[in-house]
Amino acid sequence: MLGGEPLGRAGLALLLMAAGAGARPRPAALGGQPRSSVVLVVCDSLDGRLTFFPGNQTVDLPSINFMKRYGTVFLNAYTNSPICCPSRAAMWSGLFTHLTESWNNFKGLDPDYVTWMDIMKKNGYHTQKFGKLDYTSGHHSVSNRVEAWTRDVDFLLRQEGRPMVNLMGDRKRVRVMEADWQNTDKAVNWIKEEAVSLTQPFVLYLGLNLPHPYPSPYAGENFGSSTFLTSPYWLEQVTYEAIKIPKWSSLSEMHPVDYYSSYTKNCTGEFTKEEVRNIRAFYYAMCAETDAMLGEVISALGDTGLLRKTVVIFTADHGELAMEHRQFYKMSMYEGSSHVPLLVMGPGVKEQQEIPNVVSLVDIYPTMLDIARIPVPQNLSGYSLIPLLHVKAESEVSLRRPRPSWVLSEFHGCNVNSSVYMLRTGKWKYIAYADGCSVVPQLFDLTADPDELTNVAIKFPVIVHSLDKILRSIVNYPKVSSSVQKYNKQQFISWKQSLGQNYSSVIANLRWHQDWLKEQKKYENAIDKWL
């Protein structure tokens, strides 16, 4: 940071001018050149639609704009599971969620799983990680687990605090999310002190918590994260007039799974337009702070002359609904939750390119190996992004598996009372649930209805049938849903047994305690009935 402030748009531009063309990533052929270093910055909960028009009108994101100017932005990049741990498990393994069996925020990859970073290390890359990883099992609260396991139980309980905003500090308060800034500082110092003198290529990973909402202790001892918190400094980067107030269906018209999500997320009460606008504005301000951290990393690469030989990738584990569809958080296949940012710049990457192809986070694994010129295993769910990014090397592209015209996302965790599968292809988004029969599917035409307000599944039965057929060719989803149900029941039973006498008091005091304690016996009976 120069003088305590993050580099703004002007700062990044000046940096490049000062360093001359030397700091700019140079288009280079893959062969013959030394292997590029890679920097991957992954934030948490950034809605990918903010990285291009019209979403980018709401908030100033100079570092993202810089990456677009000197690199490529993907217009249709998706998470493979819209929640932290399962999404990251897909990104680090290159495999879909039903293959990693990362069913909820507690269950990810085994700690000794071989990731793309391990393979790059074996193949001569110096590797370094800072910040949030969250792709192995064992993280997140007991509440998170129990809520996921009991989602088939016939009860409805609020599991989150009501979403709210909190303004802290004054216009001088830049470093709001201190832990993220400290990790950014570590990455910047590592670039300036270590990376600059390495003789081998490196891969650096920086994981940020922002713009994930903050914990809400006001909601009692087992609180969730429903507070959108920022300072006036970042709020000033937001254009209030450009903020869209989302349209909501009435509660009675909502899809049954959406209703369950909205209720468990404590969003079925009354919200004024001003409340909704503020939640969205504060969320965008948190995105601006995230963007500044990305800018610090890019600036450090520029200052050290490493930018021209480094591929920089920026993405997120999932998005944030920010009150669209009467929900906050993720755990949904709607665009706000499932659409992620994906920007790439560096040697050989086309500048000012917008790519419309659908891609997803499992593509990171083969892309990393491709950059490192390591043969890509054939069993991966993902496909390298290099053929889309590069100033085309025809001979090289023809040898590859053809990229499919669809992406898959799935969800099996808390706040949603069914396994959910999303197939995104062309202008369509098809969402199937559970066994494919017991819950009605959804079909959205994203060209005609970008806000996903009209389910046209009944109107287009032939399209539903053909998309369902494609989905079933990728994943036997009724079978997966059934195995998740069995897993949930087994996990719950062993957890219950481990508590012995304490079971009743422990289950009553999880995040749903405010509702549970009103009718304790009723909810315990519902669980017994389910078991």
Automatic annotation (TrEMBL):
<protein>
    <recommendedName>
        <fullName>Arylsulfatase K</fullName>
        <ecNumber>3.1.6.1</ecNumber>
        <ecNumber>3.1.6.18</ecNumber>
    </recommendedName>
</protein>
<dbReference type="GO" id="GO:0005576">
    <property type="term" value="C:extracellular region"/>
</dbReference>
<keyword id="KW-0106">Calcium</keyword>
<feature type="signal peptide">
    <location>
        <begin position="1"/>
        <end position="23"/>
    </location>
</feature>
<keyword id="KW-0479">Metal-binding</keyword>
<dbReference type="InterPro" id="IPR047892">
    <property type="entry name" value="ARSK"/>
</dbReference>
<keyword id="KW-0378">Hydrolase</keyword>
<comment type="function">
    <text>Catalyzes the hydrolysis of pseudosubstrates such as p-nitrocatechol sulfate and p-nitrophenyl sulfate. Catalyzes the hydrolysis of the 2-sulfate groups of the 2-O-sulfo-D-glucuronate residues of chondroitin sulfate, heparin and heparitin sulfate. Acts selectively on 2-sulfoglucuronate and lacks activity against 2-sulfoiduronate.</text>
</comment>
<dbReference type="Pfam" id="PF00884">
    <property type="entry name" value="Sulfatase"/>
</dbReference>
<comment type="similarity">
    <text>Belongs to the sulfatase family.</text>
</comment>
<keyword id="KW-0732">Signal</keyword>
<keyword id="KW-0325">Glycoprotein</keyword>
<dbReference type="InterPro" id="IPR000917">
    <property type="entry name" value="Sulfatase_N"/>
</dbReference>
<dbReference type="GO" id="GO:0015024">
    <property type="term" value="F:glucuronate-2-sulfatase activity"/>
</dbReference>
<keyword id="KW-0964">Secreted</keyword>
<dbReference type="GO" id="GO:0004065">
    <property type="term" value="F:arylsulfatase activity"/>
</dbReference>
<dbReference type="GO" id="GO:0005764">
    <property type="term" value="C:lysosome"/>
</dbReference>
<dbReference type="InterPro" id="IPR017850">
    <property type="entry name" value="Alkaline_phosphatase_core_sf"/>
</dbReference>
<dbReference type="GO" id="GO:0046872">
    <property type="term" value="F:metal ion binding"/>
</dbReference>
<feature type="domain" description="Sulfatase N-terminal">
    <location>
        <begin position="38"/>
        <end position="372"/>
    </location>
</feature>
<dbReference type="InterPro" id="IPR051849">
    <property type="entry name" value="GAG-degrading_sulfatase"/>
</dbReference>
<keyword id="KW-0458">Lysosome</keyword>
